[in-house]
Write a structure and sequence with these properties.
two-stranded antiparallel sheet; mainly alpha; 8 helices
Length: 210
């Protein structure tokens, strides 16, 4: 089984797990509900998706079979939680893991865009560190990233991940199949995100009250 060839949903799940491990460590590993909210975010995602629990469960099963994700049942928990295993299976962490996650979540980007968008996921010291991380991913076998040809009118070339097959050679294209959910899908995703935030707020209030 080729662990490097994923479908768009599996790629989104992996990227979301890496991102939330860095951004919300107290809530990581993620439950299915939390992972659904992360995958369907309206911000920091390209394309925006509206994935059902069934879609994500199928992706998790496939990723677990590839040993890229592990299922955990923490003591005292009534629901399973999920964590990525990219640091073990592909031996990537730190800058390389952050750069790959951003490509999985937002499609082809320049090194400068990755640095700007990394936020709290990873504190890149500069564009040079991003380039070094992306080059290291490209040097793996099989390669995980590819530097695309610079397009006319653009100052910099973009990088793409190769986990969904051959990368596009046009800067506007995404490395995975685009999923256009339309206005209805965006509203539903926003409602799911708000619901997840309310649940998180209630949990924090209960902890404070206790």
């Amino acid at each position: 089984m080729d662990t490097h060839q994923l479908d768009p949903v599996e790629a989104r799940v992996l990227g979301a797990l890496v991102e939330k491990q860095a951004l919300t460590p107290d809530a990581y590993p993620l439950t299915l509900n939390s992972l659904a909210s992360a995958c369907n975010q309206l911000t920091s995602r390209e394309p925006v998706m509206q994935l059902s629990d069934a879609d994500i469960s199928a992706a998790l099963d496939a990723l677990i079979a590839r040993k890229l994700v592990a299922e955990r049942m923490p003591a005292g928990s009534r629901v399973a939680k999920y964590e990525h295993r990219l640091n073990y299976e592909w031996n990537i962490d730190g800058a390389r893991l952050a750069a790959l996650a951003l490509l999985l979540l937002r499609g082809p980007q320049t090194s400068a865009e990755i640095r700007t968008r990394s936020g709290r996921i990873y504190a890149f010291s500069g564009v040079e560190e991003v380039e070094t991380a992306l080059a290291a991913l490209a040097d793996k076998y099989p390669p995980l990233t590819l530097k695309l040809e610079r397009q006319p009118g653009e100052r910099e070339a973009r990088w793409a991940h190769l986990l969904c097959g051959e990368a596009p050679q046009t800067a506007a294209a995404a490395p995975c199949e685009m999923i256009d959910v339309g206005l209805t899908g965006r509203v539903a995703a926003l409602e799911a995100e708000v619901a997840a935030l309310k649940t998180r707020l209630l949990s924090l209030e209960e902890k404070l009250a206790g």
